[in-house]
């Protein structure tokens, strides 16, 4: 069993005591990244950052643990891009004036954002400009910024697509919102597809990561099958743009 799989299994056991169950996936953490007790305090730490206050366009993953951050971005009228579940229907764009006052909590949930946001292609996102801030959930994250998702690599793909088009840069701040039990105190070795985060926000602390080098850039096409490319619409779009078979 791989190190990342062992780490996930260990963290998932700890999460059972603090996680908030999903209405569809219950406590099956292999299918979703959960919200948790204390997420409001963790999000307070993100909201206090200069990167949040100066944000003109954000990307936030469709994780349960980022719901509160999405609500605050909506309330602050910050335009936002998110992905559909597992990127199966591509990306969604939520314009700053799309949500009526008072509807922010509903719009922050995945079902709600589907109602208020509009589907967008990578070309549409490119017309919006670069992301100023990116946030994600995680199954686990090490103190040196190595993030483990559900095990399917969707954030790695999103980062690859965005960096290929210049929508995200190595300097773009990336934050993970997690519970303290999800923080791995070990320093872990990164592989070629790991996208380290710069900030880790938990209910009790904000960890600023000193990255030893640059993040990977672009999509690692050689690691994908034709079927995987065809199943994710924006990946297929980028493959056509780049002439990838």
3D architecture notes:
The protein is an alpha/beta fold and about 240 residues long. It has one domain (about 5-220): NagB/RpiA/CoA transferase-like (Rossmann fold, 3-Layer(aba) Sandwich). Helix content is about 35%, strand content about 15%. The protein contains 10 helices and 13 strands. The chain has helices spanning about 5-15, 40-45, 50-55, 65-75, 105-110, 110-115, 120-130, 155-165, 225-230, 235-240, and strands at about 20, 35, 60, 80-85, 90-95, 120, 135, 140, 145-150, 175, 185, 200, 205-210. The chain has an 8-stranded mixed beta sheet with strand order 6-5-4-3-7-10-12-13. It has a 3-stranded mixed beta sheet with strand order 9-8-11, covered by helices on one side. Strands 1-2 form a two-stranded antiparallel ribbon. Helix 4 (about 65-75) links the parallel strand 3 (about 60) and strand 4 (about 80-85). The two termini are about 30 Å apart. The model has no long low-confidence stretch (mean pLDDT about 90).
Show the helix and strand layout.
Blueprint: H1 3-15, E1 19-20, E2 35-36, H2 39-47, H3 50-53, E3 58-60, H4 67-75, E4 80-83, E5 91-94, H5 104-108, H6 110-116, E6 118-120, H7 122-128, E7 133-136, E8 140-142, E9 147-148, H8 154-164, E10 174-177, E11 183-184, E12 199-201, E13 206-208, H9 226-231, H10 233-242
Parallel strand pairs: 3-4, 3-7, 7-10, 8-11, 10-12
Antiparallel strand pairs: 1-2, 4-5, 5-6, 8-9, 12-13
